[in-house]
Structures are given as C-alpha cells and as structure tokens.
Design goal:
The protein starts with 46 loop residues before the first helix and ends with a strand. It is mainly α. A two-stranded antiparallel ribbon has the order 1-2. Helix 4 packs antiparallel against helix 5, helix 4 packs across helix 9 and helix 6 runs antiparallel to helix 7. The chain is built from ten helices and two strands; from the N terminus they run H-H-E-H-H-H-H-H-H-H-H-E.
Amino acid sequence: MSAEPVLVAPVDTSNYSPGTVEKTCFLPDGKPVEEFRAHLDESNPRFEIVRETYRLMHVNQTVASVTGRHASWGQFNKRKMTIMEALFELNKLINDSDPDVDVPNHAHAFQTAERIRELHPDKDWFHLTGLIHDVGKVLALWGEPQWATVGDTYPVGCAPGDSIVFREQFKDCPDSNDPVFSTKFGMYEPHCGLNNVLMSFGHDDYLYRVLKHNNTTLPDEALYMIRFHSFYPWHTYGDYNHLTSETDRCMLPWVQEFNKFDLYSKCDALPDVEAILPYYQSLVDKYCPGVLNW
C-alpha cells in the first residue's frame, strides 16, 4: 500500500533567513533546558500517562489506520467553525503526551504566540502560526483518541527512527512484522520528500490539510511549521534525512526556529488573553477568515 501525497507548489527558498536567537532566551523561570521533554524521567509525575499514550500510538498507528483516518477526516464535513472558535475549544484539553505542563492547550497557544511576537515583531504570520499551531488537537474532542492526536510524529510505512521516544514499543505494532514497512526506506524512494511521506496521524498534518482545503493565505513557511512541528525525530534529532528533499532541507531552519518558541515557552504563567485577543483576531481575519470546514 502506498501513501497518496498532498502536493503543494514548489517553495521559493531564496530569501529565507530565519532568526538565530539562542534558545536560552526562551526559558521561563530559569528552567534548565534538560528538564524539557523529559519523557523518560520516571520521577516525573506525568510519566505513566505519557508512556501509555505513546504505547498506544506506537502499537496502533499503522499504514492502514493512518490512511483510513485521512479518508474520513479528509472529507472536511465534520464541523463548521472559525479558527478562533476551534482554538478556544482547546481549553477543554490537557495533552497526555506532554511531560512538561498540564495546563489547557489554548494557554500554550497564547504563550507560544506572544514569545514569537516578542522576538519576531515584523512577522505577523509567524505570530498567528504560533497561536494556531496546535488547533488540530480538537480531534481529541471530536472522538479521536489522544494517541491519534497528540505527541511526536513520525513516518509510517518504514522502520522507526532511532530517536523516537519509547521506541521499544514498536515491537507490538503489526507493521513491524511487514517485510516492506519494517525496512529503512519501507514504501518510499530515497529523498522522495516529506510531502510524499505518510506521517503518523495527528494534529499537525490534520490542521495543515484543513488550512489548505479552506484556501487560507498563510505562507508556505507557516504551513510547513504547522505540518511538521511535532516531527522531533527529524527536526531535532536528525533522523529520516534519507527521505528528505532539497525543499525539506531549506525549510528545516524555519521548523527549528518555530520549535524554540513552541517548546521553551511552556510554563504555568499565562498571558492576559483578554488584552491581546483583538490583535490575534485581526490576524485570523487577515489570513484565515470566516467559517472553515473541518
């Protein structure tokens, strides 16, 4: 079985110049870098919840299950709502895959956006990207389990990368015994490009497809950040470069720049949402206006 790629126009990377702000500038309350993404720290009070979420993900995310979910959700006939309405739905959700915080996800959205706004004041599309990047997690409120909604993403249809958290759990995945899907390249060609790779199903790729389907006008950099921001095995640990294309390599610095804000803005201090909401509503009206089909 092969994935059906969602093709996009070639990206002009000639003028890309992501910022180079050191990640230490983003750390809240002096929290050390090594204390973020402590998935394997058994002393973390969230350890068992996180591990079980990943176990279910690694066992159940197969080529067949991902393809089936795309066929269903790709009809975009489940809901009609604005992007801001979807964002505030996230105040009902706490991410079971996140070892860092247990605050509702809409709070993390405003934290991320405000950090980006502080360091990249001239890129309003980047501010909005920070705000909406996790909106696809509404899937968990619409019937999808969290293992098919949150957490790090990775390609299905090939062997799991060495850096995937709780990698040993894949031994119980049916695709691990498939003679093709269990190999390094699996069902893919070398350097076929991430656009032609079937990622594990989750909020990243789902929101990307919603934004494309509704003809929103966020730039390609923003769409790339949204689609691959949870692909930690690639953008942070360097796995899967045997599948990436030149476009992927050009876009990688943008995804890494976004990751600084996504990860290191997490803390318990919440911004004054009421005060900043009009600004972000103006960006929604500019780039993602009106009622969207989900």
